[in-house]
Design goal:
Elements (H helix, E strand, L loop, with lengths): L1 H17 L3 E7 L18 H8 L1 E8 L8 H11 L18 H7 L3 E7 L4 H7 L2 E6 L10 E5 L9 E2 L4 H15 L6 E6 L11 H8 L36 H31 L6 E7 L18 H4 L3 E4 L7 E8 L2 H9 L14 H5 L9 E5 L3 E5 L3 E6 L4 E6 L17 H18 L30 H7 L11
Parallel strand pairs: 1-7, 1-8, 2-10, 3-4, 3-7
Antiparallel strand pairs: 2-9, 4-5, 5-6, 8-9, 11-12, 12-13, 13-14
Helix pairs in contact: 2-8, 6-8, 7-8
Length: 490
């Protein structure tokens, strides 16, 4: 009798699970929030992201919640997977004691499958996903020579095989194969983490040529160099070494063309995945989430990397499409990428586990004018802090006791510092208090000033450029004077 009861209990749980939606999570790498045509960029071609936006809800103020590392992607992905703010992730390598999103979905009847970049170690991968294909276990590689591995069902990795196609194509291939193999008996979570548009900025030649011939303008906040030492511009920094100082407009223009080329090629692979979903029997029961781990400076404020707290680097696109999601709408609600952890549980009809940070965004699906928070906090290591409300944004650079204040309504490019204007002293005080409250909330113990601040000025002529081994020959020739010896990633 007990066996019969257990059998029917198993059947009922399988039937209940089968009614739940599938989740296809598409994760770009280093994509600025302003690089989707449907979101107002008239110079980039993203027809498939535009299609997704037309069929879903676009979040226009979405952020990475800062980082404990210069490899911002590591912290961003850790927060997404654990649902914890980075100050609450004590074991940043293995996430010990912190169940992951796909791990919990698997416990609730989901098939979980990973494709693409995983920069958080094998231990976390093996307990998060039941299997995976065309995985890249690292932070970056030449897009045309990606070492790929399979995650076997026993939690081990197969031997590496060198990819023969472009990275985004390989990842889309594996995603499509997985989608085509599914049936309606078991819901799934498919996680596809692209390595584009992270450098090396070497899209297929026709894609960069497309933008060389139709050049996008430089960012409105382009500067030859950052005006002060933010804590990450001095010294031998990889991302900031991708172009010489001062930044020449022609060099940044070429790199922007190459960056846009990566995004347009990625967009085409997203289109292939969307086509596979639409051709499947599960098309009406599949939720697609597209976002990126963070943005990128690409010449804004004299910077190239993402190791800063400006909007262009902490922001990222976010589009959600599927059953129950409004079509062709957008929201100005301030959100974090880590909010997707709670949100996915709600979308799947599962109880949200206790102790998860972030907010459930499903209220916004019902009313895109709704909000889930009144402010955003952006802490980067112990060298930068920013907080914003619906209008103003405060930057604090504790190592040099420097403060910036921007009116994001009148100055969305963050170029006109109001912090020293007496009429804005009250706003600075108000936002400083808000920042301190956020610090208490997330357990951030870093001071906002120091007794012996360092110099603000930077002698950019003394900065050595770092070259990593993944840059292809034509990029070394073009941007590094043909330099052969790499000093990073060996």
């Amino acid at each position: 009798m007990k066996l019969v009861f257990a059998f029917f209990l198993l059947l009922s749980s399988i039937a209940f699970a089968a009614d739940r939606p599938n989740i296809v999570f598409l994760f770009a790498d280093d994509q600025r929030p302003d690089t989707v045509a449907a979101h107002g960029n008239d110079f980039i071609k993203t027809p498939h992201l535009d299609r997704l936006a037309a069929n879903g809800l676009s979040f226009r103020q979405n952020y990475c919640a800062g980082s404990y590392s210069g490899a911002v992607c590591v912290a961003s992905r850790s927060m997404l997977m654990t649902g914890q703010h980075w100050h609450n992730i004590k074991d940043t390598r293995n996430w010990d004691g912190l169940p992951t999103l796909p791990e919990r979905l698997g416990e609730n009847g989901y098939r979980t499958f990973a494709v693409g970049k995983w920069h958080n170690g094998l231990k976390t991968l093996a307990r998060s996903f039941q299997s995976g294909k065309n995985l890249y276990m690292g932070g970056m590689s030449d897009h045309t020579k990606v070492p790929l591995q399979e995650l076997k069902t026993d939690g081990t990795l197969a031997e590496k095989e060198m990819g023969t196609r472009f990275s985004s194509t390989h990842f889309a291939d594996a995603a499509i194969e997985f989608i085509d193999d599914q049936d309606s008996d078991q819901p799934y979570m498919l996680y596809v983490a692209f390595t584009a548009p992270h450098d090396p900025r070497n899209p297929p030649p026709s894609y960069r040529q497309l933008y060389y011939e139709n050049r996008p303008p430089l960012p409105d906040n382009f500067l030859p160099d950052h005006p002060f030492d933010n804590g990450h511009v001095s010294g031998k920094k990889r991302d900031e070494g991708l172009a010489a100082h001062p930044r020449e407009q022609s060099v940044v223009s070429d790199q922007l063309c190459e960056y846009y080329g990566l995004i347009t090629h990625l967009d085409g692979q997203v289109g292939r995945i969307l086509d596979a979903i639409e051709s499947s029997e599960e098309r009406d029961n599949t939720i697609v989430i597209y976002t990126a781990d963070h943005g990128l400076a690409m010449g804004s404020h004299g910077l190239l990397g993402k190791q800063n707290v400006y909007e262009h680097s902490m922001g990222s696109p976010l589009i959600v499409s599927g059953p129950g999601i409004p079509k062709g709408k957008s929201t100005e609600a301030m959100t974090y990428i880590l909010d997707l952890h709670k949100t996915i549980f709600s979308l799947c009809g599962l109880p949200i586990p206790n102790g998860i940070d972030g907010r459930d965004l499903t209220a916004i699906f019902n009313d895109p004018t709704a909000s889930v928070r009144e402010s955003i906090f952006l802490p980067f290591q112990d060298i930068m802090r920013a907080v914003r409300n619906d209008r103003y944004k405060l930057h604090v650079y504790p190592k040099i006791n420097h403060v910036l204040l921007f009116d994001l309504v009148d100055d969305p490019e963050e170029m006109n510092n109001l912090a020293d204007h007496p009429s804005y002293a009250g706003i600075v005080k108000q936002l400083t208090t808000l920042m301190e409250n956020w610090q208490k909330h997330v357990g951030d113990l870093s001071p906002l000033s120091v007794d012996n601040p360092g110099p603000k000025e930077v002698d950019f002529s003394k900065i050595e450029r770092s070259l990593d081994r993944w840059q292809p020959d034509w990029i070394r020739e073009k941007y590094f004077d043909g330099r052969a010896n790499a000093d990073h990633g060996n």
